[in-house]
Write a structure and sequence with these properties.
251 residues, alpha/beta, 8-stranded parallel barrel, 8 strands, binds phosphoenolpyruvate, EC 5.3.1.1
Length: 251
């Protein structure tokens, strides 16, 4: 089995403005721009994509978007299409739990976004994860398996896919999943991929997300089915984010 290159992706969410985002990008680029052996991605707000790209030019840090429409064009006020993002980003987050919870996104819609993005040559970072009540009821594995399968309905471009297991109860709470819990669930995700596309299961990167920081990243990355991290809060602090990149990289 070919080794999977780890991924550290930062989701800035609705934080930073153009000026502060550009400054943050510059700092990250200076600290981590040359680290190899890891795919490094930052996902700023749409309005900062151009300036963040300029601030990071010459580095190997890639840029992602935080969302995309499944529609190609037309009367969708406030939405951003894949063709608008082509050439600007290499990745896009789809199905983040905040969009599922706050914007009512369904797994069907997430699947449509992932398919549209991949067709445009933009790699989807597809998020799934259970909330606390599901975990407490002992249903985390079956919930996540169903959610992932539904979110990949009709999806075919396995080379470009990144999956992010993000338990809702761990996002932004400071309470990360244990490495055992994260391993168990990323393995569940990999088995879903194996069922849908047997030949892709060992090459698709499966990330963990939820309160990752420099204190817990090494243990999480040491798990056999965890290929990196999707990072919220810690991606807004250049030094902390760079420590995560350093932990995943080879120099
Ligand atoms: C996220 O929002 O994807 C996330 C993982 O956030 P945090 O790292 O802040 O928990």
């Amino acid at each position: 089995m070919a080794a999977r290159t780890p991924v550290i992706a930062g989701n800035w969410k609705m934080n930073t403005d153009v000026e502060s985002g550009t400054a943050l990008a510059k700092e990250i680029s200076e600290l981590s721009g040359d680290v190899s052996g890891v795919d490094k991605i930052v996902c700023p707000p749409f309005v900062s994509i151009s300036s963040v790209t300029s601030a990071m030019s010459g580095s190997s840090i890639q840029i992602g978007a935080q969302n995309v429409s499944a529609n190609s064009d037309g009367a969708f006020t406030g939405e951003i299409s894949t063709s608008m993002l082509q050439g600007l980003v290499s990745h896009v987050i789809v199905g983040h739990s905040e969009r599922r919870a706050l914007n009512g996104e369904t797994s069907d819609q997430v699947a449509a976004k992932a398919i549209t993005a991949a067709e445009a040559g933009i790699s989807p970072i597809l998020c799934i994860g259970e909330d606390l009540s599901v975990r407490q009821a002992g249903n985390a594995s079956s919930f996540v398996a169903h959610q992932l399968e539904a979110s990949l309905d009709g999806y075919a471009d396995w080379d470009s896919l990144i999956v992010a297991y993000e338990p809702v109860w761990a996002i932004g709470t400071g309470e990360a999943a244990t490495s055992e819990q994260a391993q168990e669930m990323t393995a569940v995700c990999r088995e879903v991929i194996r069922k849908l596309a047997p030949s892709a299961a060992d090459s698709v990167r499966v990330l963990y997300g939820g309160s990752v920081n420099s204190g817990n990243v090494a243990e999480l990355l040491a798990q056999p089915d965890i290929d990196g991290a999707l990072v919220g809060g810690a991606s807004l602090k250049a030094e902390e984010f760079s420590k995560l990149i350093a932990a995943a990289g080879s120099d």
